[in-house]
Write a structure and sequence with these properties.
The protein has about 260 residues and is of the alpha+beta class. The chain has 7 helices and 8 strands; from the N terminus they run H-H-E-E-E-H-H-E-E-H-H-E-H-E-E. The chain has one domain (about 65-260). The radius of gyration is 19 Å and the shape is globular. The structure holds zinc ion.
Length: about 260
Amino acid sequence: MTKRLLIFSALLAFSAGGLRQGARAEDMVRNEELLDKLVAAYPDFLASHQGNSLRWKDGTEMAFDDGKGGKDFAMRLDAPDLEDEFYVSYPVGRAGIPPGTDIDPGRVRYEPFFAKMYGDCQKAGVAGKLVDIVWLPKHGGKRIKITAVNGVAARLQAVSDELDRLPESFMHDLTPSGGTYNCRVIAGTSRRSVHGYGAAIDINVAASDYWMNSRAVGGQYPYKNRIPWEIVEIFEKHGFIWGGKWYHYDTMHFEYRPELLP
Ligand SMILES: [Zn+2]
């Protein structure tokens, strides 16, 4: 019997049955699986989980679900918990575009979780963890700064080395990099950008599309993208998700989010 089945039947046995308990048991199973993914994705920081608690290696406990239930799209972005980050699954590989309305897998981030690992750039907590890597050594080889936390710098160097071997026709999409570390909020919001943690990179701005630069037609943002799948696949292989899979698309943007990838 799989772990999932074991937990599920145990939960059912303890419940009095009925739809509500069934649904609650299913939520608990789902949360268990997501907590497993988080612990596996960040082994340098996370030790284990129990019930609704995520246990950090320093002994801290962090709630997974804040119990506030159904949040609307804006609330989920502005006041999420860890559970809200998984409100929709990230489609790996050549899938997921164009995304449906408000489908932004990975764009919801519980900031205390990321600040605890990467530091708070407004309190000078990030700069000391940044290291230099060479972006596309065979194609100009500019140095860029990226966090060493969670092995992100080594992983981005591996991405860069692989991208560097793609045919020349891909290089315009990749160079120059639009930037990595930048202690800023996301345009038009008070939310910290993943660039502020040093765990994101923008590829060539001139080859990219951003939802805020487009005009809504009939209340919808028409999807635009010029970044080829070959580039996206290499980033995903090393733990980075792509902003091109968001309804609020940002096709130059990649960030380290291994908990959303297989
Ligand atoms: Zn970005």
